[in-house]
Amino acid sequence: MTTQIKTDAVQYRHEQTVLEGFFAHDAAAATPQPAIMIAHAWGGRDDFVCDKARRLAELGYAAFALDMYGQGVLGSSPEENGRLMTPFIENRPLLQARMLAALNTVRELPQVDAERIAAMGFCFGGLCVLDLARTGAVLRGVISFHGLFDPPGNTHGQRIKARVLALHGYDDPMVPPAKVIALAEELTAAGADWQIHAYGNTMHAFTNPRASDPGFGTVYDATADRRSWQSMQNFLAEVLN
After folding, report:
1. Total domains in the fold of the chain
2. Which CATH number fits the domain that encloses residue 181?
3. How far from chain centre, in Å, is Cα 129?
4. How far are the Cα atoms of 77, 86, 152, 202 from residue 80, in angstroms, in the given order?
5. pLDDT exceeding 70 applies to what percent of the chain?
6. How far apart are CA 219 and CA 235, in angstroms?
7. Cys-Cys link to 203, which of 20, 104, 219, 225 (CB 3.0-4.6 A)?
């Protein structure tokens, strides 16, 4: 079957903030497609997540790289990235509401099967998709790639409906083993169907070829990158069928 990958900028809003998602899908598809939301790392909606959207579209999904910061807002240094991310780390209800705005936008896209939506995210984006699941949002599954695991504090007692896959570097200094165990306990208490895959000798940001700062704890690992992408495909095939 011939595919015709088409990409579009999709503007949407959360409160007073204009946001811009990057949408990739197969324009030759005869019926609406299952959709994957992609949440970016702390630097903003960059080429990294847009490339993931294109790759997912080639796999047969409608892929939406969402925007947490605002149209055209990108960080250019660790300090600037931190300034962009911190308001959401400090105000998790804001983070959750912005994620729900993206989910509602994706549901309304005519190319999307609104009953078959999953979300994935990288680093800060991993935290974002976990928080979306923590709110009890109705979606099929969420995948965290080297995400942050700290609980938000406002979802205790909330049942998690989405299935959860966390792909984690065991040597990630930002998420030590105690936080991995805490996430497992949290997900179990919330009644989630969950998996955590830990990659040995692997640090934070292992999917990003630009990550090369062992002192900061961010190092690309080609093997963990490949394994995690395959685990993602297996998970999506299961939850979106």
Report:
1. 1
2. 3.40.50.1820
3. 5
4. 5, 10, 23, 26
5. 100
6. 25
7. 219
Answer left, alpha or beta for residue 206, where phi above 0 means left and psi between -120 and 50 means alpha.
Answer: alpha
DSSP for 51-64, please give it. HHHHHHHHTT-EEE
Residue 118 · residue 111 · CB < 8 Å: no
Q: Which residue has the tokens 């959750």?
A: 96
How far apart, in whole angstroms, are the C-alpha atoms of residue 59 and residue 134?
Answer: 27
Q: Tell me how far apart the alpha carbons of residues 192 and 159 are, in angstroms, rounded to a whole number.
A: 7
Q: What is the DSSP letter of 202?
A: -
- The tokens 């961010």 sit on which residue? 218
Enter the pTM of the model.
0.97
Q: What are the tens digits of pLDDT across the range 50-92?
A: 999 999 999 999 999 999 999 999 999 999 999 999 999 999 9
The amino acid occupying position 99 is M
Distance CA 206, CA 199 (A): 10
Q: In the structure encoding, which two tokens stand for residue 196, read together?
A: 């955590």
d(CA 111, CA 61): 10
CA atoms of 128 and 66, how far apart (whole Å): 11
Could you tell me the sign of the dihedral formed by the alpha carbons of 36, 40, 46, 48, in that order? negative
Find the domain containing 167 and state its range. Answer: 5-239
The pair phi, psi for residue 213, each rounded to 5°, is -130, 85
For residue 14, the cross-strand partners are 17
Query: Residue 43, SS3?
Result: coil
Measured CA angle at 179 (ends 210, 148), to 5 deg: 35
**In angstroms, rounded to a whole number, what is the distance separating the alpha carbons of residues 68 and 140?**
21
